[in-house]
C-alpha cells in the first residue's frame, strides 16, 4: 500500500495538467505519453529539427537551445494546446530548468549547476572530496607536448585514455591512445571540440556503474550495472554492447561500489545542494573499483534498474529535480533492491540470469556493435 500511496503523491506534479514533451519525436516519448495519459494529462509532442550531428554529445548540447528557440509555428501550437498557460514542459536532462519555457515550468531538465557537475574534468575533485580511491590522472591543455608528457607518465600496459571537457554522452568524447599515431589522431579529434582533456591510464577490468538518488533524508543506493564494452586493439576502438544486471561482483566489491555511490551522493548534497539521481561509472579492476566519470542525471543504467517500477522512479526523479519533497525515504527506495536482484535486465533483447555477463555473451557471438548514442 505504501508504494501505491507514494506513486499517487509523486503523480500530483503532473496530474490533470497539459504537458508539452520536447525535444524528440513521438517514438522517444511513448512511455511518457502513456504514463501521463494514466494521470489524466493531455500531451503535445514537439519535434524541433535537430541539425545533423555525428556524435550523440553534439546533439545533447543542442537540446536547451532547441526548446528555447522554437519556431513560430511550434510556439503557436503550444499556445493553442494550453491557452490558459497552466501546463508544463517535460524535457530531456540536457535542458536547463532554471527558467521556464514559454512561461511554463520545466520538468525532467536539470538546474545548470547540476548539469555543470557532469563536466568530465571535474570528476577527480569529487572523488577526492568524497574520499574515494581513484586512478591517477592529469588535466592538460590541447597542446602536443603537454599531451605527450601526460600520456607517457600515466600510460599502463594497455596505454592511456583521453576524455574531453564538458558534459558528454555515450563515451563519444573518449579516445584510446597507445602510440604516437594515436596521439595525433586523438588530438585532431579534440581540436575543434575541447580546450582541455583528461589523461588517465587504460583501466583493465569490468566496466560498470553504480547509481543512487539524493533524497532529503540521505542517499539511496542501488545495485551495480555492467557496461558491456568490447575493444578492438588493432583499430583502437571501443564498441558499446549494452547494459546488463546479470553480472554480480563479489559481495565485498558490491558493497564497496555501493559505499562509493553513498559517499558521492552525500558530498553532492552537502557541497552542491544536489538532489535526484546520479551515477558513477568506472572499472572494477584487480585492485578494486576505480571511478572514471560522474553522471548527474538518471542515466541509462539507472533507467534500466528503474524498470522494476518505472512510474515510481521516473516520477520521483521529476519531483526531486523541481525541489518537491514527496516524503520518499532512503529505506523506501532501497526497498526495491530485492526486486532488482531478482529481475535481471539488459538494454538488449536478452534475458539474463544471475551471474551472466552481457559482455561475455556479446564476445561469444562476435557481436560487432556500433557505439549507441543512447548509452
From TrEMBL:
Say if the entry is tagged with keyword Repeat.
Answer: no
Q: Which InterPro entries match?
A: ATP-grasp
Q: Where is this region: Disordered?
A: 345-375
Q: Which SUPFAM superfamilies match?
A: Glutathione synthetase ATP-binding domain-like
* TM regions (residue ranges): none
Q: What keywords tag this UniProt record?
A: ATP-binding, Nucleotide-binding
User: Start and end of every ATP-grasp domain?
Assistant: 124-321
Is Lipoprotein a UniProt keyword of this protein?
Answer: no
Residue ranges annotated as compositionally biased, kind Basic and acidic residues, are: 345-356, 363-375
Q: Mind telling me what this protein is named?
A: ATP-grasp domain-containing protein
Q: Which organism is it from?
A: Nocardioides aquiterrae
